Amino acid sequence: MSVGSNRLGNLEDSIEYLMKLKNNLQVLRIDNNLFQKTRQNEYKKYIIARLRNLKYIDYELIESKEREAALEEQKDEITHQEQAEGNEAQDEQNVLLRNELRDAKIEITMDIFGSAISKLEEDPALLLHFTKF
């Protein structure tokens, strides 16, 4: 994939976009963009650490030592990003579950049980009436 010389100003947004594609990108040309002027020495490490299937960047083979160094240098940011993505995924899962429960009218059942538990907490003697059956 070539995104070189495209006036990309924000490296992070560009790489995040590529990461979200969930593809097996192995070759990337991204040189001659605006961010390169301010981040000349670090942009390759940033990309290598995040696009783990990448084999070539800007026509250069990524050596294993280079990848290890990039991962080591970026490990705190990557950990933070992975945690944030995990939280986002959990939030999405919770929304889907709530929607499924809503569609199944489970919230009504949950409200009934919640109400019963509240009443039992207010008056434990009510429990005696239920245990006689």
- Main beta sheet, described? 3 strands, mixed
**Shape estimate:** elongated
Mean pLDDT: 81
Question: What fraction of the residues are assigned to beta strands by DSSP?
Answer: under 5%
Assembly type: single chain
Distance between the termini: 71 Å
User: What is the rounded Rg?
Assistant: 26 Å
User: What's the total helix number?
Assistant: 6
Instruction: Give the strand line-up of the largest sheet.
Output: 1-2-3
Percentage of residues assigned to helices: 55-70%
The structure class reads mainly alpha
Order of helices and strands: HEHHEEHHH
Task: Give the tally of β-strands.
Answer: 3
Unreliable parts: none
Tally of separate domains: 1
Walkthrough of the structure:
The chain is mainly α and 133 residues long. It has one domain (11-131). It has 6 helices and 3 strands; from the N terminus they run αβααββααα. It has a 3-stranded mixed β-sheet with strand order 1-2-3, with no helix packed on it. A hairpin with a 2-residue loop joins strand 2 (56-57) and strand 3 (60-61). The model has no long low-confidence stretch (mean pLDDT 81).
What's the structural blueprint in terms of helices and strands?
Elements: H1 11-20, E1 27-28, H2 34-38, H3 43-50, E2 56-57, E3 60-61, H4 64-103, H5 106-122, H6 126-131
Parallel strand pairs: 1-2
Antiparallel strand pairs: 2-3
Helix pairs in contact: 3-4
